[in-house]
């Protein structure tokens, strides 16, 4: 399970005295623990992936801000954090892959521009954790033309 892998990697990073890596993994572990306490249930791999995605989104937002301030130290920290978390996500899909999936959904369902919501509902579970969700809507609009 992904949760155990994160914990094992956190312990290995502690033993190797990789403070930055330990810090990143502890943030994710804390979010996982918080979820489990609040929901009173063990978290699934999908839940762990959502937490990692949320952390990556926050790191990217902080990176944008650091770039605006030209803060090299924070930029380096953010990039390192992204490198640490990336291996825990499923293999990412390319834009071409997702575009092909959307085209297939549109063709098979005989959808029109009025069916945008139905298309989104069908594509989102297929790309969850494997593609930047914010890019889906513009792609669907473009393909519906």
TrEMBL record:
**Record bears the keyword Kinase:** no
Keywords for the protein's UniProt record, in alphabetical order: Coiled coil
Q: Which InterPro entries match?
A: Asn/Gln_tRNA_amidoTrase-B-like, GatB_Yqey_C_2, YqeY/Aim41, YqeY/Aim41_N
Determine if Methyltransferase is one of this entry's keywords. no
**Where is coiled-coil annotated?**
49-79
Task: List, in alphabetical order, the Gene Ontology terms for molecular function in this entry.
Answer: carbon-nitrogen ligase activity, with glutamine as amido-N-donor
Q: Give the highest taxon in the source lineage.
A: Bacteria
Where is the chain membrane-spanning?
none
PANTHER family named in the record: ALTERED INHERITANCE OF MITOCHONDRIA PROTEIN 41, MITOCHONDRIAL
Name of the protein in question:
GatB/YqeY domain-containing protein
Q: Which organism is it from?
A: Clostridium aciditolerans
């Amino acid at each position: 399970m992904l949760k155990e892998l994160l914990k094992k990697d956190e312990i290995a990073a502690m033993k190797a005295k990789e403070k930055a890596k330990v810090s990143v993994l502890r943030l994710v572990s804390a979010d996982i623990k918080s979820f489990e306490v609040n929901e009173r249930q063990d978290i699934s791999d999908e839940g762990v992936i959502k937490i990692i995605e949320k952390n990556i989104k926050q790191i990217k937002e902080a990176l944008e801000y650091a770039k605006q301030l030209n803060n090299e130290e924070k930029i380096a920290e953010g990039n390192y954090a992204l490198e640490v978390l990336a291996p825990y996500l499923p293999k990412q899909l390319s834009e071409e892959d997702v575009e092909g999936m959307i085209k297939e959904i549109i063709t098979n369902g005989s959808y029109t521009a009025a069916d945008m919501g139905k298309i989104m509902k069908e594509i989102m579970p297929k790309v969850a954790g494997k593609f930047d969700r914010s890019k889906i809507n513009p792609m669907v609009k473009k393909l519906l033309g």
